[in-house]
Write a structure and sequence with these properties.
membrane; 0% strand; mainly alpha; transmembrane helix; 216 residues; 71% helix
């Protein structure tokens, strides 16, 4: 309907202009009768033009009406800003704490932290820090003192895995020592071995040999 009325509006405008021009032309030629007739046509065209304009406004698209009704100064609702994770959540300590809080078995927690350790981009400074920590925890006999402490055990497993991954297949005293630390932490945390089992004690004897080589 809007398109039809627009067409009538346009046609009426054209007819009105032509009629007005003809009326002026006839006045110039002193043919007043024809001029008056042309003026009547012009008046009718203007009348139709006005009606078409009024009718067309009733059929304007809704989107156009809405855009016209909106105030240019109208304040739009601000979109919520995404929360940025804290620095703590982005650290390995934050990851260990997160995994430790999971409501899952020790084996699943172990798998999760190991998968994270496989991709962790450790620096040389961190490798040295982890090595010193692992040696100290073993020497003070603390590393298996509380195997039920998820956060502590997962932290130890993470550090040992990262150090072993750094050295790869390299056979060095520190790598051998850390691997024994990793195995004992892994087995006792998952409940596969008790802290006084033969397997754990055997690993500790091998670790003692590696530790002697490290310190000499």
């Amino acid at each position: 309907m809007f398109k039809i009325l627009s067409g009538i509006f346009l046609l009426s405008g054209i007819v009105g202009v032509i009629s007005l021009l003809l009326a002026i032309f006839n006045f110039i030629k002193l043919d007043r009768i024809k001029a008056i007739k042309m003026l009547k046509f012009t008046g009718i065209s203007i009348f139709i033009l006005g009606l078409s304009a009024l009718s067309a406004s009733e059929f304007l698209p809704e989107s156009y009406k809405v855009s016209q009704e909106e105030s240019p100064n109208e304040k739009h609702e601000e979109k919520p800003v995404a929360k940025v994770k804290s620095t703590e959540d982005a650290t390995w300590q934050g990851k260990v704490k997160e995994v430790a809080s999971f409501n899952s078995t020790p084996s699943k927690k172990f798998d999760t932290i190991e998968a994270y350790a496989k991709k962790y981009p450790a620096t040389k400074a961190e490798i040295k820090e982890f090595e010193d920590y692992i040696v100290a925890e073993y020497k003070n006999k603390k590393y298996l003192a509380d195997v039920q402490n998820n956060e502590y055990m997962l932290g130890n497993i993470f550090k040992a895995y990262v150090v072993n991954r750094y050295y790869g297949e390299e056979e060095t005293p520190i790598n051998d020592f850390v691997f024994g630390f990793y195995q004992n932490s892994n087995y006792t945390f998952k409940g596969l071995e008790s802290i006084n089992s033969n397997a754990i004690k055997y690993n500790e004897r091998q670790m003692d040999k590696a530790l002697t080589a490290i310190e000499n």
